[in-house]
Write a structure and sequence with these properties.
The chain is an alpha+beta fold. Helices cover 28% and strands 31% of the residues. The chain folds into 5 domains: 2-189, P-loop containing nucleotide triphosphate hydrolases (Rossmann fold, 3-Layer(aba) Sandwich), CATH 3.40.50.300; 202-286, Translation factors (Elongation Factor Tu (Ef-tu), domain 3), CATH 2.40.30; 305-378, 2-Layer Sandwich (Alpha-Beta Plaits), CATH 3.30.70.870; 383-487, Alpha-Beta Plaits, CATH 3.30.70; 491-612, Elongation factor 4, C-terminal domain (Alpha-Beta Plaits). It is globular, with a radius of gyration of 29 Å.
Length: 613
Amino acid sequence: MASYADKTFTPPELIRNFCIIAHIDHGKSTLADRMLQITGVVEERAMRAQYLDRMDIERERGITIKAQNVRLPWKVGDVEHVLHMIDTPGHVDFTYEVSRALEACEGAILLVDAAQGIEAQTLANLYLAMEKDLTIIPVLNKIDLPAADPDRYAKEIAHIIGCAPDDVLRVSAKTGVGVAEVLDEVVRVTPAPVGASDAPARAMIFDSVYDTYRGVITYIRVVDGKITPRERIKMMSTGATHEILEIGIVSPEPKATVGLGVGEVGYLITGVKDVRQSKVGDTVTSLRKGATEPLTGYREPRPMVYSGLYPVDGSQYPELREALDKLQLNDAALTYEPETSAALGFGFRCGFLGLLHLEITRDRLEREAGLDLISTAPNVVYRVVKDDGSEMTVTNPSDWPTGKVAQIYEPVVKTTILAPSEFIGAIMELCQSRRGQLGGMDYLSETRVELRYTMPLAEIIFDFFDALKSRTRGYASLDYEEAGEQESELVKVDIMLQGEPVDAFSAIRHKDDAYSYGTSMTTKLRELIPRQQFEVPIQAAIGSRIIARENIRAIRKDVLAKCYGGDITRKRKLLEKQKEGKKRMKTIGRVEVPQEAFVAALSTDSTADKAKK
C-alpha cells in the first residue's frame, strides 16, 4: 500500500467520493469494516470490529459520533479506481456531522436494515443528500437474518426514492455477501468529481480534530487546483495564513503524500494549536495567486438544548474550562459560556444539538479529563418581549425577567415519526398531550405510516422519545428539525427551601404543566434532602403564588432522656426550651442540600441511577 501514497495526483475521472447514510444499528460501521477488508487496506490480523470508530465511547455504545474518512483502492476490470468513503453518524443529534460529510461527496449509499425498514432519521439524511443532488445507491443489509423481509422493504425504498425494487442491492455486511457488488455499483453510478486542475487552489474544510502532539489536523476535499507541502495557504473566512507542514491521505491510517489534486480527500497539518483558525466550512487557498471566490460553506449549527455543567468540586473549574476548549476542537457544534449559580458555584452554560449530544459530551468530559460533573435540567432558548417593547433572549431560568412581559416566544420543531400503522392512536394521543399539531400523515406501505407534527422543542427534549418508544413497543423512530418559533403562555416555576429560591431547581414551564412540575419536584426533594434540626418547608411558586408545598420534619432530640420520674412541670419546661431553640435555629439556620440531592433532582432518570450507584 505504500506505493499508493507515493503516487502523484490521481486523475479526477478515476476518483469516486461517497458516504454511507444509515440509522443507528443498521450495520453502517460493519459495512465499512468489510470494505476495508475487501479492498486490502487493513490486513486481516490488524482488523477489529468498528475499525473506523476511534473513541471508546463509540465502541461501547455501538454508535458513530464522529464522521471518519478513508481512501480505498478498487479495481473494476483492469482500471484501478480511488474511492473516498466517509462513514457518518446515524443519530439525529449528529445530523450536522452528516451535512458536512455530504458536501465532500458525489454519491451516497442508503443502507437500510432488511428486518426493520427505513427509519425517520435515515429519511431526514436521505432528503439532505437528495437536496445536494447526490447519486443515491440503495442497499438492504442483514439479509442473512431470519426476520429479514428484503422484498417488502425493497418496495418501500423504491417508493421513497423513485427507483425499481430490483435496483435495491442486497448485502450482508456481517458475512461479506454482496459487498464487492456495492463497490462496483459505486464506481458505475457515482459521478467523478468536477474541478479545474489549472485554476487557483480551492479546498473545502469538512472536519478538523485536535491532536495533543501535532496540533489541529484539518480534513479537506480539494475542488480546484492542487495543494502541496511547504506551500503557504490562506483560510478565506478568517484570513489566517499558515505553512503546510504535512499533507496526505487517510488509508485508514494517515499517510503523507506529495500533495492533493482535484477531487481528492485528505488531511493537512500546519502545526496550529487553535482550531478556530481552521473553521469547518472554510475555503483553503494558496497565499500567492490564490482564489478570490470562496466555496459555499455550511450553515453554523444552532444549539437546540441548553444545560449548565458544573464541577462537583469547585476547584476543578479551570480544568473544566480547558476540557471544554479541547472538546470544542473536535466538536464544532458545542457552544459554551461561563455562568454562576448561587447553589452550584461556577460552571458553564453549554448549548447542544439534542439530549444524546448532551449525554455524550458530559460522558467525554468525565472520561477524558477525569472530572465529576453535575448537569442542570436541559432547557431551550426563549425570546421574551417586555411591556416596554424591549426584547431579551433567555437560555437560563435565572435570567427570566421579574416584571410584566407582553409576549413569550418558544422554539418549535417539525417532527417526523415513522411507525407501524397499528400504533397511530397511541402516537397521536402522546403528541397532542405534548401540545403537538398534526401536519400530515402518509402511508409508506400497507403497514408503515409517517406522521408529521409541529411541536414545541421543550416538550421533545426531556422524555418524549422514551414515551414514544414505550407506547410503540420500540418500533417508532423520531426525527426533528427546527421550524421557527411560536407565542406561548409560559411561566417560571421557582423551588424554594425555607422561603429562599434555589436557582438550580428553577424551570420554565407551560402554564398548564407548571402545577405537575411543582408537585413532582417538591415530592422528590422531600425524599432527597436529609432531615435538619428544624422543620423545613419546600415550596413551588409562580411569582408570589405558592402552588405546591411539602415539609421535611425536624429531627427531635430526646431532651427528656435524663428525666426519670419527677414533676411534669420540669419536663414541660425542657420541651418549651427546646421549642424556643428550634424557632431561633430556624431563623438563622441554612438548609444543607447534599450534592447527591442536586445530582438526583436535576438528572434525567438514567443519570440519577448512575448517581445512586
